[in-house]
Design goal:
Helix content is about 35%, strand content about 20%. By secondary structure, it is of the alpha/beta class. Bound molecules: calcium ion. Calcium ion (CA) binds next to loops.
């Protein structure tokens, strides 16, 4: 288990916060707590955590608003902590870029799966700091994508998919593999989510989106990013 990773816990209930802190420190995480949405946004601006555990029902700015605000500047993994009956908010949170969710209450083991997702793509990243393929340049540290020197602005999901594709360049990647890595294990069958993101990525990256050079379709399989593409 990665130790020392910073988890920002956004939770207003002291008892829930206490038990989360216990579980997380037990797993070797550093815990930073924010009792309100405002405090959470401030904390993220000050220092980006490696993962965020986000309660939806908060006094003042709610969890959805926090999610939206964080996603404007970062693809840090966000795990939503939801109570039963908050199905609608959970779906909304996912649409706003949340990576996974955990239904409350949960035992010590309940957090393990979502935290594994967070480990798979830590905010710091283990990949090379930059990637180049012909005119395409990606600066992972600054989350900057340029094409022939011009800035391309991907959405958070587009960026995450692109990052996954280029860090596994020149390999045929199945839909399920990409969906699991970027959206989380329970989205492995949501092929349409991935299709939509690839479509919009092609519109931003390819000279002719109908004749892609970077992101090729592997019929019946998934996609392959071509690192030797020249645009
Ligand atoms: Ca709450």
């Amino acid at each position: 288990v990665t130790s020392g990773a910073r988890v920002l816990v956004v939770e207003d209930e002291p008892q829930m916060l206490r038990s989360l802190r216990l579980i997380l420190t037990g797993h070797g995480y550093d815990v930073v707590a924010a009792p309100t949405g405002e405090a959470a946004i401030e904390e993220v601006a000050r220092r980006l955590p490696d993962v965020i555990l986000l309660d939806l029902m908060l006094p003042g700015i709610d969890g959805l608003e926090v999610c939206r605000s964080v996603r404007e500047r970062s693809s840090v993994p966000i795990i939503v902590l939801s109570a039963r009956g908050e199905e609608r908010a959970k779906v909304e949170a996912r649409d706003l870029g949340a990576d996974d969710y955990q239904t409350k209450p949960f035992g010590a083991g309940g957090l393990r799966a979502p935290l594994r997702v967070a480990h798979r793509h830590p905010a710091g990243g283990r990949s090379a700091p930059v990637f180049d393929a012909g005119p395409l340049h990606i600066d992972f540290e600054r989350r900057l994508v340029t094409l022939a020197g011009r800035r391309v602005v991907p959405t958070p999901k587009e960026y995450d998919v692109l990052k996954y594709l280029v860090t596994h360049a020149d390999r045929a990647l199945t839909h399920a593999l990409i969906l699991r890595a970027v959206w989380g294990p329970e989205y492995a069958a949501e092929t349409q989510y991935l299709r939509n993101v690839v479509l919009s990525l092609r519109r931003k990256l390819e000279t002719d989106p109908a004749q892609p050079h970077f992101i090729l379709t592997e019929p019946g399989v998934g996609y392959r990013f071509i690192s030797t593409a020249d645009g």
